[in-house]
Specification:
The chain is of the alpha/beta class. It is built from 23 helices and 27 strands. The protein is globular. Helix 18 crosses helix 19. Strand 1 and strand 2 form a beta hairpin. The chain folds into 4 domains: about 160 residues, DHBP synthase (Alpha-Beta Complex), CATH 3.90.870.50; about 190 residues, DHBP synthase (Alpha-Beta Complex), CATH 3.90.870.40; about 130 residues, Nucleotidyltransferase, domain 5; about 230 residues, Nucleotidyltransferase, domain 5. It starts with a helix and ends in a 10-residue tail after the last helix. Helix content is about 30%, strand content about 20%. Bound molecules: zinc ion (2 copies) and fe (iii) ion. The site of fe (iii) ion has 7 residues, from helix 13 and strand 19.
Length: about 750
């Protein structure tokens, strides 16, 4: 802000000063009245791309008689309002030009940046934002860089992370404990190793990546095995949009997202296949364009590169060189390191789009820590989210900050990563939590952490029901008024319900900070609990049994099991014990995927549902009769038995898997609409919210929105935080506004 305001003051010949403090930017200007007005206008209309003006307050003061306009040193005095911390963004056009210009002193320098681009969040240690409080403090500026830094006419005027090959961070290549190359030679060596099929760990902006050639199946396979990745898809780094078009379909929205400053991974429809092992069974491919000058240079004239987080399974990603050299020792053949410290982890963001439909799947680099303004005030709060796709949220007043993606809480390292993130955000935004919020699931690691945190800090612990938190996350990001009734349709994997069963197919009436469960999917016994989430043929058999259908050998899910397994399963189901009961739509889709023969075993959550979406013929009709009955607590229970019968008939008629998969989606949409209509007969509402991981399915989200809109409903979907559990922490934080001590309920 300061360099920009300095230039603006010059334009209107104003005198005075500008300064930063943790509350924001302060300035005093003196000049002719007309010039002052034009200055104030320009301030609002010409805001630079990385800045965001939340509010401008103007107070007339007596003339002081300043002779010039100056930038005063920052003050560290802590006040009440907060400065925002900018996210890390991709190189700007000017910097890219310099990177490619042989006559420029920053030619091919992988760490160049300016006031308009480069790392911020991951190198800021504390506020106000000045070089001595960033990890760049270890690098003394050379005379040239210092001259630019102090020259108000220069693009790098007060560019805190500015650097050049002479004074800034440098690359090195390490393999087998030896430093093999430096600078450009290190980069070239890394590129050679990648071409030769090796796996290279690369230090980026917010942590380490593991990279390999995406066209060499063997290399990708090796990376999969070493990382214990199962068949979860990898994303690839491509040089530019033109190159990317060869591999994926890119429409205008996709191009805008791919080339945006935030530079997320964008999930797009595949064209030419890369190595089979990159994204097996997927109709989409995650694609990212270079998000730093280093990555620009890395992928020059290279094949597409797999770029995946530098970690084992879902542990937190490696951040420091030391961490990487030990944690990734058995994963990488070589390490491309640099000596700029990463203050805080920030993984790649993931976005999915289709035409105008855009949803975040993982909100991290480029977006975090952008503030989300809540619909109303809350006390200083820490919300810890759920156990998977972890994020934490700190909130105070109407301001909320959701952390970047933290990984899964089950790993001990995740707990320390979360602690570090909480400390960091709490320091940056000077928040001392007076309450901590978690999920109601008694076994969640995140909930246990929250309990310890509350005890250690002597503050209140609140627990918020999982699907209510999903609904409130949606309301929070849209600043949805709490007095307006919304029917929140929450479809996800599983979450702890109020009745001790697992929920996940819910129609929640939300108003005045409370919810009422108006509808649910008819619960299914998940035989053997956790085992059934991997062996989804068990879910299909349970669904058949409940629908009064025989386990006949012609069905793929029956053929996949042994007679012995079926005997055990029959006993379990007959007694109705030895498993969890769940109304989860995610599990129901798994059961259907198994029933129609898509797959019988999954190795990551939502794998079957994603394949079902990939296969589905979008033009199939919904034909099953709608059937809902009023259950206990006046909750409408949607019985999907007619759908199972329809599918079995279609399967036996010899319909293709694509047709069958299309039927599953169409039936889910039609039944969901019918449930909304049924509920409206008893409770008036015009707004429908869609949340939960199932709504990452583009077809289901879009079709449901169309049908509900045609019936006159307003439909709300996620735009800022993910529909999956990555959004829970925001919803939990907002739940505290109503002061309901859920712990006692
Ligand atoms: Zn730049
Ligand atoms: Zn320099
Ligand atoms: Fe969930």
């Amino acid at each position: 802000m300061r360099p920009w305001l300095w230039n603006l003051a010059q334009r209107y010949r104003l005198t005075g000063w500008v300064s930063n403090d943790p509350q924001g930017v302060w300035l005093e200007v003196e000049g002719e009245r007309g010039a002052l007005d034009r200055f104030a206008d320009a301030m609002q209309t010409e805001v630079p791309p990385l800045a965001r003006l939340d509010a401008v307050e103007v107070t007339p003061i007596p003339l002081v008689g300043d002779l010039a306009f100056v930038i005063r040193p920052s003050s560290t005095h802590v006040g009440q309002r907060r400065t925002q911390v900018p996210p890390d963004v991709a190189p700007c056009a000017d910097c890219l030009r310099e990177l490619r210009d042989p006559s420029d002193r920053r030619y091919r320098y992988p760490f160049l940046n300016c006031t308009q681009c480069g790392p911020r969040f991951t190198l800021i240690e504390s506020l106000p934002y000045d070089r001595p409080r960033t990890t760049m403090r270890h690098f003394a500026m050379c005379a040239d860089c210092a001259a630019e830094y102090h020259n108000p006419q220069d693009r790098r005027f007060h560019a805190q992370p500015t650097a050049c090959p002479r004074c800034g961070p440098q690359l090195e290549l390490v393999a087998n404990g030896h430093r093999l190359a430096e600078h450009d030679a290190a980069l070239e060596a890394a590129r050679q190793r990648l071409r030769a099929g090796q796996i290279v760990a690369i230090k980026g902006i917010g942590g380490f990546h593991l990279a390999c050639d995406a066209t060499q199946n063997e290399a990708v396979q090796r990376l999969r095995q070493r990382k214990r990745r199962g068949s979860k898809p990898f994303a690839v780094l491509l040089a530019d949009v033109a190159t990317a078009r060869r591999w994926v379909e890119i429409d205008a929205t996709a191009e805008r997202l791919l080339t945006s400053r935030e530079r997320p991974i964008v999930l797009l429809p595949r064209r030419e296949p890369l190595a089979d092992a990159v994204a097996p069974g997927q109709a989409t491919l995650g694609v990212m364009l270079p998000y730093s000058p280093l990555h620009e240079l890395l992928c020059e004239a290279m094949p597409p590169l797999v770029l995946t987080s530098g970690n084992l399974a879902d542990e937190p990603i490696a951040r420091s060189n030391e961490e990487a050299l030990t944690a990734l020792a058995s994963l990488a053949d070589a390490f491309l390191l640099h000596d700029r410290e990463i203050r805080v982890r920030c993984e790649d963001s993931v976005v999915r789009c289709d035409g105008s439909w855009v949803q975040p799947i993982r909100r991290s680099r480029g977006y975090a820590p952008r503030m989300i303004r809540l619909p109303g005030p809350v006390r200083p709060t820490l919300a810890v989210g759920g156990d998977w796709k972890g994020t934490i949220c700190l909130a105070d007043g109407e301001e909320a900050w959701v952390s970047p993606h933290l990984g899964d809480w089950e790993h001990p390292q995740s707990v320390s990563a979360a602690e570090a993130m909480i400390d960091h955000l709490a320091t940056l935004f000077s928040i001392e939590p007076q309450q901590v919020v978690c999920d109601r699931h008694p076994d969640y690691f995140s909930a246990q952490f929250a309990q310890r945190y509350a005890q250690q800090h002597g503050i209140a612990l609140l627990r918020v029901q999982h699907h209510f938190a999903h609904a409130l996350a949606l309301q929070a990001e849209h600043r949805f008024p709490s007095d307006r009734p919304m029917l929140a349709v929450v479809f996800d994997g599983t979450g702890w319900g109020d009745d001790g069963t697992f929920w996940g197919g819910e129609w929640l009436g939300v108003q005045y900070g409370q919810y009422r469960r108006w509808g649910q999917l008819r619960p299914l016994l998940l035989p053997g609990g956790d085992a059934a989430t991997r062996q989804i043929d068990r879910l299909a058999l349970a669904l058949l049994q409940r629908s009064g259908e025989a386990w006949s050998d012609d069905l793929p899910c029956v053929a996949a099991t042994t007679p012995h397994e079926r005997r055990l399963l029959a006993q379990l189901l007959h007694r109705g014990i030895g498993g969890a009961v769940s109304s989860s739509v995610g599990r129901w889709l798994d059961a259907l995927a198994s029933l129609i023969g898509i797959r019988q075993v999954v190795d990551f959550e939502a794998q079957a549902a994603m394949e079902l979406e990939a296969l589905a013929d979008a033009h199939m009709p919904a034909e099953a009769d709608f059937s809902a009955t009023l259950g206990p607590n006046d909750t409408w229970i949607w019985d999907t038995t007619p759908i199972v019968r329809c599918l079995l008939a279609a399967l036996r008629r010899g319909e293709t898997r694509a047709q069958l998969a299309g039927r599953c989606q169409a039936e889910l949409v039609r039944g969901t609409v019918a449930m909304c209509q049924r509920i409206r007969e008893h409770w008036p509402f015009d707004d429908v919210g869609l949340s939960g991981g199932v709504f990452q399915n583009v077809w289901i989200s879009q079709r449901l929105t169309q049908e509900l809109t045609a019936l006159g409903y307003r439909v709300w979907q996620h735009q800022q935080v993910p529909a999956n559990d990555g959004g829970l922490s925001l919803g939990q934080a907002w739940a505290t506004a109503y002061q309901h001590d859920s712990a006692t309920r």
